[in-house]
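Dock alpha-D-galactopyranose; give full complex structure.
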Amino acid sequence: MFQQTPPMGWNSWNTFGADISEELVLTMADAMVEKGYLAKGYNYLVIDDCWSLHERDKDGRLQADPEKFPHGMKYVADYIHKKGLKFGMYSCSGTETCAGYPASFDHEYIDAETFASWDVDFLKYDYCYRPMTVPGRILYHRMGNALANCGREILLSACSWGADETGKWIKETGASMWRSTGDIFDSWESIKKLTYQQLELLPYAGVGCFNDMDMLVVGMHGKGNVGLGGCTSQQYRTHYSIWAFMGSPLMIGCDIRTMSDEDRETLQNEELIAINQDIACRQPATLSSYGGWKPDDLLILFRPLSDGDLAIGMFNMADEERGMGFVIDEMGIPVSSGKTLLLHDVWSGKDTLVKNETYTEKVEAFGCRVFRAKIVNK
Ligand code: GLA
């Protein structure tokens, strides 16, 4: 299925793990609409691992656990669709899912048909318990072909964690997004690690198939399945800014029914969402700080947008305030052009005209600045 911009939505894994149910999913669908997420573009509601029984039925089909989902999956799909949302589910390319439930190896076509019969719109497809005799790219080709021929448009979300150089072959399988790194945990160390691992993979990102940096941990504050200490709201803002800026799918992982207003505002920053959803989906480039000096924990990125604006991000990954800056020549705006930049800060709303060739600003520990910049006459 063709996907123009990074998918957005909510996924059950980060907070709820195996503790999922029809009631949880239905109330989450309500919250996605009532709390304004759908209106901002978050339209997929994805049930992750642990939704099924441990056995297939007599015809070899996957079956939902009736204790967790007493009315079955079509009922859940109908409810989600009535809300204007799309419905995502989960399986795995091996013999079992990562949590040990039946998975789709050698059942790809029958499972794709089952998902289609439940009106599923999105399939997250994991990489655990896969047979070592079949290469990963063939496993994803199998499900890619099965979905493309199941009679329904179903987005394939590959989840092979960047293993076996996934970026080199995933686009040929029909996947629309691919997990480029390992699992996220709700800690600053995890956010930082995934961010740096992503830098080398940015050339693989682009329209049609997006590098998935894993579900967001914004708003978890240490609670839930991948809660590992938690982060501050400032750290969540920087985490969100990086994921949005790098063009990752934006899949929320916290309990949006109970989260704070502050974290909700982070997830609903329209200007960042617009950068993430820019239709050109260009990969960001790294800039050196002050034209050459590049300390490890300061990350400066820029990304040309489809209307001629530039997105510029300064991310302070250090645990102390730092002076940060950039030279605009590095973005292709030499002094000789007579042009400069008008910076619009997407978090504070402040506008600043760059007066010299260099822009500098102090950025607080774990903080960030994201600008949407216009090229203007000096
Ligand atoms: C893997 C995936 C996670 C999640 C779990 C479920 O670890 O990477 O995102 O889907 O499996 O078991």
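Observed: The pocket of alpha-D-galactopyranose is lined by residues 13, 48-49, 97-99, 126, 159, 183 (CB under 6 Å).
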